[in-house]
Please model this.
Amino acid sequence: MSEQLRAALQLAASGVPVLPLRAGKVPFGNCRACTRNVCGGRPNMKTPGPCACPRPCHAWAAATTDPTVLRSREWARAWCTAAAVAYHPGGAGLTVLDLDNADAIAWARQTLPATRIVRTTRGEHWLYEGVMQSANAVRPGVDIKSLMGYARWLGPGTGAMAALPDTVRALAVKEPAPARKAPQALSRPLTGGQGECRHRTPTYLERGIAMAEQRITEARSAVHTTVYRTFLAVLSTHGRCGCLTDTHVARLFTAAQAKGETPRHCTDAWTNARTALGM
Model:
């Protein structure tokens, strides 16, 4: 039994769906019967199992916890040449934040709640309990692997696992069409909330606003999307407890307008972010 298969069986026994990876951290290609999904596979579905192929086809959707499948003759060749074991985080109820460099790790440490961390070749995987849609390049050096995605197994990691925060969910949200028209002269909306404040100190809010300003200021491309996602992240963390003031919002709008955004777009982006969060 190969080292990869042994690791895969141990993971599967704990309820984690697994699959083999080739060199280069890529899944094995579809078999001839499944090439170009001629089998009728449904790779856009959010659950595994696009077809009844007994081979490790369809990338993430091939992930399984069935030891009979993992030991089967159809999978044997793959395990003999496999370079690594991967798993489907969404199938295990998890989301993996793939941080690919030191800057991405620094951002996560300053922005996100502590959770279980797995060291990678170039960075870290931060594991959270909860699922969401996978998304690549949600910010520089950051990918999200959960539903319809796979991550390489690099060990159990260290630390207690936290619940998936809204800030991570917000990274993958695309800005919807403007929810309503707003007067051109409006530069900042009214804010407020009735929820309980969970901030440890006023410094926590100040740091969050400063980091949001910095993220907008440092955007080199996709400014429109960056502004929206930043507003969404700020509101998801600070928008329900009433701590945000017009002064805080004005700082965000000023940073966005300095990057070329119009007052109208700032207002629309803020309104759409509140709508997306049900505020």
